Amino acid sequence: MQTLVGPGTPFSDRNVTIHGLTAWDVEPAPAFNAIYDWMSKMSGEIVACYTMFDRSALGAACSIYRLDEADCLWLDTAQVVRKVWNQFSQKGYKPDKIATYLGIEFSHHDALEDARTAALVLLRAVEETGLSVRQR
Question: Rounded to whole angstroms, what are the CA distances from 27 to 30, 60, 109?
Answer without folding.
Answer: 8, 20, 19
